[in-house]
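@channel anyone free to eyeball this complex?
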Amino acid sequence: MKFILKLGASAVSALLVWEIVLQLFVSKMPMPQSHPILGRISSGGVHVHGTEGFSWYTTNSIGMRESEIAPKGSNEYRILVLGDSYTEAAQLFKNKTYTALLERMLNSNGNDKSIRVLNFGMSGHSPAYYLQFADYYNELVSPDYVVIQVNDGDFSSDLMNTNNDKALYIASGDTDYKIMMNASKFNASSKIIQKYPRLGFITSISTIRMAKEKLAMLLSPANTVNASYSSIQAKADYKTEEIMDWTLRQFKQKYTNVSFLYLPSIDYGNPETESHIAELLNRYAAKYDFPVFNMTSDFTSYYKQTRQPVHGFHNTSPGEGHMNEAGHELVARRLDDFFERRAIH
Amino acid sequence: MIFSSKEYFVFFILVLLLMMIIKRNPVKKAVLLLASYYFYAYWDYRFVVLMFIMSLVNYYIGLMIESTGNSVVRKRWLAGSVIFNLIILGFFKYFNFFVDSANMLLDNLNVRLPLLDIILPVGISFIVFEVMSYTIDIYRKNNGSPKSFWDLALLVAFFPHLIAGPILKPKHFLPQLENPITIRWHNVEYGIQIFVFGLVKKVLIADRLAFFIDPVFKNPQDYSFITIWLAVIAYAIQIYCDFSGYSDMAIGSAKCLGFDIPRNFNMPYISRNITEFWRRWHISLSTWLKEYLYIALGGNRKGKIRQYANLMIVMLLGGLWHGSSWNFVIWGGLHGIGLAVHKMYADYVKGTTLSDHFLYKTVSWLVTFLFVCTAWVFFRSSDFSVSLVILQKMFMVSDGIHWYATPLLIAIPLLIASHYAGSKLKDYYCVKLNTFKGLLVFFFILFGLLFLTPVHSSPFIYFQF
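replying in thread with the prediction:
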């Protein structure tokens, strides 16, 4: 009995030590909650992200990497940036993200108005989410301009939910396309936690979360390789064009003053490779009169000049994964050019 | 099955339980032998028979050597054993290498010798060296043949060391088989800690560094001078942690079963010269090469020039033993040159007080470490041209991707901490797993392995040999 008590006490003590270490240096996130409109979001609090790049940051009550959204001031110009993990940029401290850099650049340009660039990036989101939440975002933010960050997956696997991992996606309806919801993924928590809400705190415990992930990987029959984003090949077919056309048409109806920021996957071994999705986006965006900021030439030129890829971090692999500081700097400058030329009233 | 897999965990627990349950020692040994053959068959069942035949032939030759006092006859039997073993090694490991090399020379004559589709039996290099040391030791009268063939079969097939050593000396291991196999809590407690220590080195250091090293060595032309140097140093750490980690897991597994296997590494990167490095690195191999090759060639008994030549021959063959590639031969040759140069130099500074000076020691360490790292370039590179690109980038400042791999910065203090822990284990100090402190340390390391294990594990580097 004494030995069992010692066993239990030592295991718990070791877990406590690791909980502190993981929360400080590897991974910490507040527990998820259900939002009536946004679905599963993280509750406000401190996040630590150390598995790719490193940052500590806070999220507000709607899970966005922003302070609480106050009513818009009379002299305020708001740029709402929608995007996925590339915009959320958990790998970087806030002041290094392109949204923060853009805000700093625009406010130092001597504009009459106070410019606010709002980072509404959320990992895993895609155009279906931005359309579904359009009314809510418009009411909450009252944006003067909307930048929608997209990449190849947004008009292929993510949008059509090919991997069956999206809460919202686009599918064929009776007469046209429509946004579909996967209720089990849209909700905040597992069935057990829905039944026993007081157990919700478990999801914020780093040791339990990481142990669950690692055990799943270790016990799986074969090590599956998570394709790095740079290796995802977008398979464009006739459906892609139809869906893109429909999606952009919806954006025209839902938002005013929209532009698209296209972040390409770069094959650094062969950087000249062009994406078919980028070509389609240019065509359909022109149809609806949306500006497109295609970062392909910016990224490849930077790489050719400096030999430093704009993706990847020192604790992962250069050229793979999310954009690093250099990539965010390039994006911010490109958007700054656009907004400088455009009069901000 | 590799030591860091769930299959090995289940297998080992079963073997341990059987050793505890079974009462009769001959039955225990039979079960251990069957388990070892199963372990080998798990890799490739086709070569289980080969291993058995090698054990049988060498046991028979050992008996023949022992049965006669005629030195000529003894020598002939020994030669037979050496030839038999080297033919097996030569065929499986070097046939295509030599044919390929011959084809390069015969290319101008439009002659092309055929290559064969040969599968390399896992651990063949280690098995061959082990059976050769058995017959040579009998010839030299350093030990006798065991009473039962099955003891030799178990020595050869003993699963903790089977795939990648340490190379066991029959005179040290066979006497242990004469004692009853007894599972004692103290041995299990100690063995687990050595095993976990090895697992930490393999999983947390070696496998993490592989993420950095592999892309750099694959395309070295893309990376900067600093990144190349970091990758080379990282590889020195990776190969040490990978191989010594494996050896520790082998030693720990054996200890749990009540067997003592000698340590194979002794902090090689603190060496201040190449001679010392080879006393600390892959000790079982360097001891084997010294006792069975270097001394057989005459060692240092036939003059200085012959001594340096013997060192070169031993290291060239030692390099070739690692793999059928000219890169390994070059690596061995470099170490041979290093050993010979050090011998010459040591004769010069002997008797002077220079070697006691702190600055001298520091510079000696640095030169040795840099030399070893540079030689590792040939060991790791996929071919000679890649080695040249890396060397060029190392010694000429060049542009490229800057990648200051964070795992390397974590690996170095972790390595220092693990060396400290390892030196404690060497002194037979270990934490008591029935105390709170001991359990706390154990669980801390276990959970660390769980949380920090990379998604993909790399195969053990020395398995390819």
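from a first look: Chain A touches chain B through 35 residues (CB under 8 Å).
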